[in-house]
């Protein structure tokens, strides 16, 4: 059974300890940006590098949670979730490019890459992106509407299983090729970078970094709470019914289409918002975020952490990305081998991922 | 012709044809059974790659009737239920629910909502949920996304679940995961889920397969209490069970009706003996 893994973990730990652990995790996430604000000479100062790495991993953890809602709970394995994340990132990126104003290399109103392409005016889809509100609408609407259209076509035609996964993978691949083209108007393979300001504040200033980090923590907490409410509702039980016995569900009088669409679009929107928070913290967005490999990695985080649990994907995204940042420094060429090995090992020996391991340990002691 | 799913298990294949059928709501209270029939299949033909699983099948079920369908393996019994429940579109023929509702134009959820419940040949319950949650999902209620997001069990619904648990003898198991039940208990749970839907017509595909003799006897008792209040169509190979519940038996062979009558009558029929012994 999938649903009560988090509950079982809490049961094994004892509710008091679970609350303590959760509280400690949250407290350290809040402390981190505050420690970044300390003077650099201070013993407790947290470097921009560390804060950025942590913020990046938090964004990934949110994506993993969103992925788990569609894969772990509803049984729809998406191998294209990186696309929704990237689209949210590009939405924010457009705004950040406009915020550069005339401070770019060419001192033009247009973003540098457009000057370089000899464009004289903004393309129509860049209109309004100097407005923060409009850009944030794009962050939500573009991944949301794309997911709605794609999902409607796929679910209405009752495409599922490996066919669905392949289609999502093809979708993100096609988008990547599109964004690689300079003529598409999103900076080609360089994407967007060299951001200067967000809402007028310098984007790399410690205070800005701290606020962006805190917003990411807030989004994570909201996504976790929302996911907890959702999966414990009747709606959530119906999602697991879609996963386990869709025909039975239809013969009970439910049309799975609406249920799948709702969770699919919600998941895409969460990814989009996570992407929008990722870009100003990391300082770059380019089409490689849409590469098929990136989306597969998201699935691996969830598998390693534990499908169909809410905490598992967070642990999976955290552990793997910490390992990755270490590997890419120590043995960059072995990272993909390690990731592949990890995925196979988890599939064979830990079908419930880290969460399965924790609850088993917890239950036996 | 679009067989969307594996007939026997209800499991889904990966790629399926486009969903057909109108999603427009059909008012079940409009069910018109003035002529005494709740279900009327007329000249139904279903082919799978040229093989006729159903061949000009014509059959009707009266309101409140308990009909048993027997027939050798591959006779088309499950395929007939697939047609009635919207899972398979027939190549030809019509399937009417009451006088006015053409089932061949509706999709599975709509057909379930207007009052046809179905138990699969292989018992299918939501294994990751508790027994009580399985019944909760099946309860007759608004089944839209918005309703499910806000759903709270009412006192009335709780009572209904308790009542059903008593009826299917799973009161002790209410908090157990359905996946942990025995085969026979899963069969009962699935029957309980059908009843929770309050259907007018129940289709039961081999309801006592895998049950012990005692369980089979209890199931026969249960079905007999449902007769009259609901219409039932029961597919079974277990002749003792059929003998215990049937008034009228229909024998299906090679996709059409071979004989109809009391169990004794059809068992004495030369052609019936031949299809059963000839294999
Ligand atoms: N989706 C399908 N594709 C191809 N052939 C099918 C399909 N579904 C059923 N058939 C074939 O149609 C015939 C009738 O099958 P059906 O399952 O209706 O028989 P049945 O009377 O229920 O048999 P049993 O008593 O074994 O359950 C069989 O020969 C079966 O192989
Ligand atoms: Mg059958």
TrEMBL record, chain A:
Q: How does it sit in the membrane?
A: Multi-pass membrane protein
Q: Which InterPro entries match?
A: ABC_transp_permease (IPR001851), ABC_transptr_urea_perm_UrtC (IPR017778), LivM-like (IPR043428)
Residues that span the membrane, as ranges: 20-38, 50-73, 79-97, 132-155, 162-180, 210-228, 257-278, 298-322, 334-351
The UniProt keywords, alphabetically, are: Cell membrane, Membrane, Transmembrane, Transmembrane helix
Named from the GO MF annotations, one term is:
branched-chain amino acid transmembrane transporter activity
Instruction: Name the PANTHER family for this protein.
Output: HIGH-AFFINITY BRANCHED-CHAIN AMINO ACID TRANSPORT SYSTEM PERMEASE, SLR1201 PROTEIN
- Supply the name of the protein: Amino acid/amide ABC transporter membrane protein 2 (HAAT family)
Upper taxonomic lineage: Bacteria, Pseudomonadati, Pseudomonadota, Betaproteobacteria, Neisseriales
TrEMBL record, chain B:
- Can you name a GO cellular component term? plasma membrane
The beginning of the lineage is: Bacteria, Pseudomonadati, Pseudomonadota, Betaproteobacteria, Neisseriales
**Record's superkingdom?**
Bacteria
Question: Coiled-coil regions in this chain?
Answer: none
Record-annotated ABC transporter domain positions? 39-279
Q: Which GO terms describe its molecular function?
A: ATP binding; ATP hydrolysis activity
Quote the PANTHER family the UniProt record gives: CONSERVED COMPONENT OF ABC TRANSPORTER FOR NATURAL AMINO ACIDS-RELATED, HIGH-AFFINITY BRANCHED-CHAIN AMINO ACID TRANSPORT ATP-BINDING PROTEIN
Instruction: Give the keywords, sorted.
Output: ATP-binding, Nucleotide-binding, Transport
Keyword presence, Glycosyltransferase: no
Query: Known SUPFAM superfamilies for this protein?
Result: P-loop containing nucleoside triphosphate hydrolases
Q: What is this protein called?
A: Urea transport system ATP-binding protein
Which InterPro entries is this protein grouped with?
Answer: ABC_AA/LPS_Transport, ABC_transporter-like_ATP-bd, ABC_transptr_urea_ATP-bd_UrtD, BCA_ABC_TP_C, P-loop_NTPase
């Amino acid at each position: 059974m999938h649903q009560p893994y988090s509950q079982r973990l809490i049961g094994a730990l004892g509710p008091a300890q679970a609350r303590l652990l959760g509280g400690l995790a949250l407290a350290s996430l809040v402390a981190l940006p505050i420690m970044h604000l300390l003077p650099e000479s201070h013993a407790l100062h947290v470097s921009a590098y560390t804060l950025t790495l942590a913020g990046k991993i938090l964004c990934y953890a949110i994506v993993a949670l969103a992925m788990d809602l569609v894969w772990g709970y509803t049984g729809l394995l998406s191998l294209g979730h990186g696309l929704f994340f990237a689209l949210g990132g590009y939405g924010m990126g457009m705004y950040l490019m406009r915020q550069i104003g005339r401070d770019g290399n060419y001192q033009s109103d247009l973003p540098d890459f457009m000057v370089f392409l000899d464009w004289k005016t903004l393309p129509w889809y860049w209109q309004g992106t100097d407005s923060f509100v409009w850009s944030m609408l794009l962050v939500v609407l573009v991944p949301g509407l794309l997911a709605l259209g794609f999902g409607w076509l796929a679910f209405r035609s009752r495409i599922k299983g490996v066919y669905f996964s392949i289609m999502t993978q093809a979708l993100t691949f096609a988008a990547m090729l599109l964004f690689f083209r300079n003529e598409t108007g999103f900076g080609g393979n360089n994407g967007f970078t060299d951001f200067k300001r967000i809402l007028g504040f310098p984007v790399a200033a410690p205070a800005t970094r701290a606020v962006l980090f805190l917003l990411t923590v807030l989004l994570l907490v909201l996504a976790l709470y929302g996911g907890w409410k959702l999966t414990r509702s009747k709606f959530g039980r119906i999602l697991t019914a879609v996963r386990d016995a869709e025909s039975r569900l239809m013969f009970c009088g439910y049309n799975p289409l609406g249920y799948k669409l709702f969770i699919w679009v919600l998941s895409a929107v969460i990814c989009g918002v996570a992407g929008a928070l990722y870009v100003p913290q990391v300082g770059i967005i380019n089409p490689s975020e849409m590469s098929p490999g990136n989306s597969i990695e998201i699935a691996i985080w969830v598998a390693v952490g534990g499908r169909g649990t809410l905490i598992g994907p967070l642990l999976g995204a955290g552990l793997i990305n910490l390992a990755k940042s270490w590997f890419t420094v120590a043995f960059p060429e072995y990272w993909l081998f390690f990731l592949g090995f990890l995925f196979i090992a988890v599939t064979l020996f830990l079908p419930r991922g880290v969460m399965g391991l924790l609850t088993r340990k917890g239950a036996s002691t | 012709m679009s067989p969307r799913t594996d007939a026997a298990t209800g499991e889904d294949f990966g790629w399926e044809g486009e969903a057909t059928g109108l999603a427009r709501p059909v008012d079940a209270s409009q069910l018109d059974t003035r002529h005494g029939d709740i279900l009327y299949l007329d000249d139904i033909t279903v082919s799978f790659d040229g093989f006729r699983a159903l061949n000009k099948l014509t059959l009707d079920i009266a309101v409140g009737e308990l009909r048993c369908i027997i027939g050798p393996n591959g006779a088309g019994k499950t395929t007939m239920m697939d047609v009635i429940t919207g899972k398979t579109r027939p190549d030809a023929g019509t399937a009417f629910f009451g006088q006015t509702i053409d089932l061949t134009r509706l999709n599975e959820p709509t057909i379930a909502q207007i009052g046809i419940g179905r138990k699969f040949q292989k018992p299918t319950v939501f294994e990751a949920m508790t027994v009580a949650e399985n019944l909760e999902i099946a309860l007759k209620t608004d089944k839209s996304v918005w309703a499910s997001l806000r759903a709270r069990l009412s006192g009335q619904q709780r009572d209904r679940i308790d009542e059903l648990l008593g009826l299917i003898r799973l009161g002790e198991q209410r908090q157990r995961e359905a996946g942990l039940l025995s085969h026979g208990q899963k069969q009962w749970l699935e029957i309980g889920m059908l009843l929770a839907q309050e259907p007018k017509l129940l289709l039961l595909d081999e309801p006592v397969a895998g049950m012990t003799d005692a369980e089979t006897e209890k199931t026969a008792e249960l079905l007999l209490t449902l007769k009259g209040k609901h219409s039932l169509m029961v597919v079974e190979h277990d002749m003792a069970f059929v003998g215990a519940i049937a008034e009228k038996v229909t024998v299906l062979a090679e996709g059409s009706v071979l004989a109809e009558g009391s169990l004794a009558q059809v068992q004495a029929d030369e052609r019936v003996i031949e299809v059963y012994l000839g294999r």
